[in-house]
Amino acid sequence: MSISLKQSLSLAKKKFFRAPQWELKMAARIFIGFLTLYFLLVFLGLGIGLFFIIRKVFPEADPISVVNQWLIYFFALDFLFRYFLQNPPVSDVKSLLIQPITKAQIIRRVMLRSLTSFFNFIPLIILLPFCIVVSKENGTTLSLWIWFIGILTLSGVNNFLVFLVNKNKRVAIGTISFIAGGYLLETYLEVPILSFFNQAFDLLYTQSLGLGIPLAVFILMWYLTEKFLKAQLYLDKGLSKKKERIIGSKLYFLDAWGPTGVLLKNDIRLIIRNIRARQVVMMGFLFLFYGLIFFTQDIYNDNPTILIFAGIFITGGFMISFGQFVPAWDSEYYSFLMGQNLPYIEYLKSKLYLLMFSVVVCTILSFPYLYFGKKTMLIIVAAGVFNFGFGSLINLFSGAYNVTPIKLNVKAKAFENTQGFNLTQMLFALPKLVLPVVVFYIPNLFFGFYAGVIGLFIAGVLGFLFKNQLLTQIEKTYQSKKYETLAAFNKNNI
Amino acid sequence: MISVESLSKTYGGVKVLDLQELVIPKGEIFGLVGNNGAGKTTFFSLLLDLIESTSGRVTINDIDVQKSEAWKPATSAFIDESYLIGYLTVEEYYQFIGRLRGKTEEEVTIFVKGFEPFFNSEVLNQKKYLRDFSKGNQKKAGIIGALIGHPEIVILDEPFANLDPTTQIRLKHLLKEEAEKYGTTFLISSHDLTHVTEVCERIVLLEKGVILKDIKTTASTLKELEAYFSN
Predict the structure, then answer these.
(1) Whether B87 and A487 lie within 8 Å, measured CB to CB
(2) Residue A344: its chain B contacts at CB < 8 A?
(3) Taking a C-beta distance cutoff of 8 angstroms, is the pair B8, B17 a contact?
(4) Cα A305 vs. chain centroid, distance in angstroms?
(5) Number of helices and strands (H, E) in chain B?
(6) Of all helices (H) and strands (E), which one includes residue A220?
(7) C-alpha B148: how far from its chain's center?
(8) What is the C-alpha end-to-end distance of chain A, expressed in Å?
(9) Angle of CA points B221, B223, B226, to nearest 5°
(10) What is the pLDDT of residue A417?
(11) How many separate helices (H) and strands (E) can be counted in chain A?
(12) What does the pLDDT look like over A7-16, one tens digit per residue?
């Protein structure tokens, strides 16, 4: 007996509708659906446009062989992305082991499911429109479509290769050095290493029988993966928990800070020791580079109001991405925290300090933007001051309304990142992002640029001065939502 | 001292807890028994201000737990694994609790070392995170965590479950010793009637949220409880 599609759909449906705040999750899904559609269209556009770009840049060359020159980089990148992000879907295998299903069936299911991964669709989405355009413009040829199938098969080979590599660091480092080394040797010393691959891909196009090679490799990979997974299908092998190294055990410098220091220590450990937290924090730091989009383009540079946006994201990227999940970060043990010898206000204070500290760090890290001029830097610093004094409080306040629990040590899947996502949080984006722009815009309109900057400074300083009074108000909100928050956080434990 | 006044909790029109009056004096080892759904966990959650009562109130040392947080220094609890912080080592977890209870790092280290016989070399110095501990060792870690700083009141939900037999017996001695030495009030819920009658001076039997029996433990208590549960 195997789990039928209908059964697993019904389970998925129950999981969805019985989750806390499912209505909001529905909205989130729709939103993410649009986002997926957007990316789909981008890739589709890329696929269609690719042919015309190639024809313009290399009018003499055959478009396929131009693509072939880049394929090795694509596959290397594809491999690395899969290596870091793709996990074999074995999470529910344990419960199937002792069911009356053969191991071969379980493995086949895992392998087929892995083929539905997002990564396997990228070449399809780009290359299918590309091939259609090529066949429209240059005439349909069998070899074109054989090449197309060959490339898709190789992408499938990558899919199983990642299984076999099994998170072996040496292979990842080897791949990176091979590609980088090959590139350097080829461009500077004219040693043809990577062009060997070009020729191999060309062969696929010129010799139709060449398709046999990727197909054979794919079948070999399938066979090897099957064998590999069969050996892993034991509780003490592939299904065992990996032992983790203890990191961040020192942190003594925080001891001097009293209860706030104790909690800060915990938050730092939370961030470095949990997959989900690490992901979110990394994303927050990526916002540091957000300015590169804005400051490099003249249309934006003439409009300081838009640049404030960039400044808010640069200095507050971490704050916004981490802060929106306060207190959900502690959802796994919230009941425990509520019973500790710890007044609520101390708990909130430690979170506020963490947010404020992150703004300081991000602002310091953004100093290289001085390259774009003093005015740009001034905008960033002004946004930093606003975030430090005022934005941090708004972020903390908005957290009181986010009661969706977070599973700390579980990876969020690409395009399924709805954990803790909710509509109220989207509404709170208004004061977080639009308010600073307004604070800048109005004085800027009447008294010029520097007045706008001063406006941001004043808002930040006022927030900082009245921090304790505002914190007391925030605490009241948290107190009034305490039982609701606890009930939502404990929903999965009961 | 814990005092309960006409405390009730209703979910969707169903009364899951209805306690007219209950006083637990300081230093008592108080046992709570009852089948699933009798209201044991609901009672503990109300005591710890984790859920809102429908009516009535609980006071700890004359402090209404819903109105003030001043009961927190006197109280600690270990209800389930969600009372552990999974990404900490056990030593870090103890330091966390200890620091919040105003103990120095050294005091905490010395205090928990004293429980080495109870830990049976399976808890301290493991170099792994609490989330990777077995269920039994998580329980051991959590119970001792609740004792750090000698809080006046310690609430333990099903402390004997998941423990191996040796540790169950050691736990019984440990609870009696703590109560005797420091006058700790223990609130213990359990499905193990033998253990609970051996450890607790007083046992309250709940059924569908109502107190059915409130007994001073004697030699015949176990029989009496067994008679009730056989029906």
Answers:
(1) no
(2) 69
(3) yes
(4) 28
(5) 8, 10
(6) helix A212-232
(7) 14
(8) 31
(9) 110
(10) 46
(11) 24, 0
(12) 666 776 776 6
* CA angle A317–A322–A326, rounded 5-degree value: 140
ipTM: 0.91
Nearest C-alpha neighbor of A352 from the set A384, A396, A320, A406: A396
Of A157-161, A222-226, A259-263, A281-285, where does mean pLDDT reach its minimum? A281-285
Nearest-angstrom CA–CA distance, B73 and B23: 20
Q: Is the omega angle on the peptide bond into residue A431 within 30 degrees of 0, that is, cis?
A: no
Residue for token pair 């003439």? A302
The three-class DSSP label of residue A320 is helix
Measured distance CA(B210)–CA(B188) in Å, rounded: 17
Chain A positions touching B101 (Cβ under 8 A) are 341
Cα distance between residue B216 and residue B205, in whole Å: 12
> B114 burial class (0-12, 13-18, 19+ CB within 10 angstroms)?
exposed
Chain B contact for A268 (CB, 8 A cutoff): no
State how far the Cα of B11 lies from the Cα of A63, in Å rounded to an integer.
69
Phi-psi category of B53—alpha, beta or left, where left has phi over 0 and alpha has psi -120 to 50? beta
Concatenating the DSSP letter of every residue in A191-206 gives: --SHHHHHHHHHHHHH
Sign of the dihedral defined by the CA atoms of residues A426, A432, A433, A435, in that order: positive
Residues A42-59, mean pLDDT to the nearest whole number: 84
Distance of CA A113 to CAs A9, A74, A217, A226, A413, Å?
14, 23, 20, 13, 15
Q: How would you classify residue A87: left for phi > 0, otherwise alpha for psi between -120 and 50, otherwise beta?
A: beta
Residue A310 CA to residue A384 CA, distance in Å, equals 11
Query: Which residues of chain B lie closer than 8 angstroms to A486, CB-CB?
Result: 50-51
Parallel, antiparallel or unpaired: strands B14-24 and B2-11: antiparallel
pLDDT tens-digit profile of A153-187?
999 999 998 888 876 778 888 888 888 888 888 88
The label of the residue with tokens 């429109």 reads A129
Structure-block tokens of residue A289: 């580079």
For an interface test with A, the pick among B82, B90, B155 (most A C-beta atoms closer than 10 Å) comes out as B82
Question: Rounded CA gap, B167 and B160, in Å?
Answer: 8
Tell me how crowded residue A321 is: count the other CB atoms within 10 A of its CB: 19
Going by pLDDT thresholds of 50, 70 and 90, the confidence category of residue A279 is confident
Cβ(A275)–Cβ(A411) below 8 Å: yes
Closest residue in B to A487 (Cα) is B51
SS3 assignment, position B3: strand
Residues of A in contact with B132 (CB under 8 A): 241, 243-244
Inter-chain residue contact A273 with B87, CB threshold 8 Å: yes
Both structure tokens of A403: 């009661």
User: What pLDDT does residue A104 have?
Assistant: 87
SS3 B214: strand
Q: Are A398 and A424 a contacting pair, CB within 8 Å?
A: yes
Query: What's the number of CA atoms in the CB half-sphere (13 Å) around residue A353?
Result: 17
Report CB contact under 8 Å: B72, A255: no
Compute the distance between CA of residue A158 and CA of residue A155 in angstroms, rounded to an integer.
Answer: 5
CB contact A235 to B (< 8 Å):
no
Instruction: Identify the pLDDT of residue A89.
Output: 64
Residue to test with chain A: of B46, B66, B67, B87, most A Cβ within 10 A: B87
A243–B contact, CB cutoff 8 A = yes
Provide the edge-to-edge strand list for the sheet that holds B2-11.
B14-24, B2-11, B55-60, B63-64
SS (H, E, C) B87-149: CCCHHHHHHHHHHHCCCCHHHHHHHHHCCHHHHCCCCCCCCCCHHHCCHHHHHHHHHHHHHCC
